Amino acid sequence: xxxxxxxxxxxxxxxxxxxxxxxxxxxSYEFMLAYAAQGVSGEAGQQSGGQAREFLNxxxxxxxxxxxxxxxxxxxxRLAQHERYGAFLxxxxxxxxxxxxxxxxxxxxxxxxSQLVDNLNASIHVRALLTDLFLIDEVLKAQLRAANVxxxxxxx
Length: 156
Description:
It contains 7 helices and no strands. It has one domain (33-149). Helix content is 76%, strand content 0%.
């Protein structure tokens, strides 16, 4: 069954879904850095942009509904102080939607040049999203470690 927020991601464990999406976004960003360095022109971008378009489409699919996925992760993991994270989850959702709009703008172009991808890479929306993902990943790791320590102490 497909996830209601994004049909390309099967419904299931929100934590696994978030990891899969983050991996795709990071992989796509790394590809885009390499593509931007190739110096592909507009005309050549029309011919060689197929792989770039594939990575951008995968990233766009991973971005759709990303805020909802992380909200589900916090709910699933029953993290203490979940309510305190609401404001940041709103920021993450907004940044994901803003980055998605930038990806879709590039995807709407008939040719994807290195310069176009370089500008996408430099976009504050994409950079903000990546920073959000790094931050939320560290917060989740810390919270899950704390929860595991607490569970061990209560069973002793």
